Amino acid sequence: MSLKILNFFGDRGLRIVRGEAQYVWDSQGRKYVDFHTGHGAAFLGHRNPYVVREVTEQLNSIMTLTPNFLSPVLEDALSSLSRVAPEGFTYVALLNSGSEAVELALKVSVRYSGRVSFTAFRGAFHGRTLGALSITWRRAFREPFKELLISSSFAPYNDASGLDSAITEETAAVFLEPVQGEGGVVPAVPEFARAVARRASEVGALLVVDEVQSGFGRTGCRWGFERLGLKPDIVVAGKALGGGFPVSAVFLREEVAQALRLGDHGSTFGGNPLALAAVKGAVNAFIEDSVPFKAREAGRVLKEMLEDSLRNIRAVREVRGAGLMIGISLRFRASRVVNCLQSRGVLALSAGPTVLRFLPPYMIGEGDAEYVSEATGKCVRECYG
């Protein structure tokens, strides 16, 4: 008997055999515009040449080594990361996924503050491991495991009125997404974000910014929090950081990093040579191909075309987002449009029950934007009618 995959996301009914830049092909030879990109991981496109080159070269050298051994690829990756790291950060820990990065940020916050309670926001998504799940809002994710979760509270997102009661002297850290992804693709309002930072500072809580989906150029700037005027204590990143290769990072200010002790955390594959090579290639692509600028411009064009295509459709509440992180709020279940778009050669995903989410690669052109916008308009009319 052959094994079956335990699929937590559901079967899309496609057998994908190849990907290149913003496109993938199925086993029947059909081409799709990929606005799903593995939940945003392939923001730099499928088989980005900068990433492929570095990983291929590293395969010919060594592929298994932990960061407590020095190596040329470790030195190169740290040098590359220094070119794009958030300003004021002197330490980085390299792991394998966004959830792992959040777990480390939780542990660092406890070590630094001596407190064990956390604050996040309604609509937040920080991962599905137990610590990350504790600060994830959606009840369907949390409820089956509620007895295992750590102490947390949730304040309204983009509403500063509840911050004083939600962030107290018992709070170890506040976790904030510059743009909520799973929560509906909702950008943080700058005034709200700054109020969060002020309140955290007042009570001595750390400010942790979760950039796993919004970071590394997707919103049109290097890091999503930069447009909000924040100075976080910890930044977690992932997905696009490795050009689609599994890798995540936790950036730490020096005084925060000093709270950690040997043995406080560890990962067999965190910072492995292939991941380091992927990071080096991803940073090269980021800088040499002006990724944030191209994402900003492509996002502007795509949003304008979507708004035009969806104008006067009662089923559409709003088109929103930042850069190439775009959500379309609907008056019915977004999964119906996701399926319709797939039948028309467009891969997308939802963000909660009623928001259609687009996470395309930065290199999409006007032709891609026009095709997807027209297909979206047709699908929304078809599915709502």
Task: Please characterize this protein's 3D structure.
The chain has helices at 37-40, 49-59, 72-82, 98-113, 130-134, 139-142, 163-166, 190-203, 254-257, 273-288, 291-310, 334-343, 366-384, and strands at 16-20, 23-26, 31-34, 91-95, 117-121, 152-155, 171-176, 179-180, 186-187, 206-211, 234-237, 248-252, 316-322, 325-330, 346-347, 349-350, 355-358. The chain is an alpha/beta fold and 385 residues long. The protein has two domains: 16-40 and 290-384, Aspartate Aminotransferase, domain 1 (Alpha-Beta Complex), CATH 3.90.1150; 49-288, Aspartate Aminotransferase, domain 2, CATH 3.40.640.10. The protein has a seven-stranded mixed beta sheet. Helix 12 (334-343) packs across helix 13 (366-384).
Question: Could you give a short description of this structure?
Answer:
The chain is an alpha/beta fold and 385 residues long. Helix content is 36%, strand content 19%. The strands form 4 sheets. The protein has a 7-stranded mixed sheet. Strands 1-2-3-15 form a 4-stranded mixed sheet. A 4-stranded antiparallel sheet has the order 13-14-17-16.
CATH topology descriptor of the largest domain = Aspartate Aminotransferase, domain 2
Number of helices, where a helix is a run of at least 4 consecutive DSSP H or I residues: 13
Would you identify the regions where 5 or more consecutive residues have pLDDT less than 50? none
What percentage of residues falls in helices of 4 or more residues?
25-40%
Tell me the CATH architecture of the largest domain.
3-Layer(aba) Sandwich
CATH class of the largest domain: Alpha Beta
How big a fraction of the residues is strand? 15-25%
In what order do the strands lie side by side in the largest sheet?
A: 4-12-11-10-7-5-6
Order of helices and strands: EEEHHHEHEHHEHEEEHEEEHHHEEHEEEH
Shape designation: globular
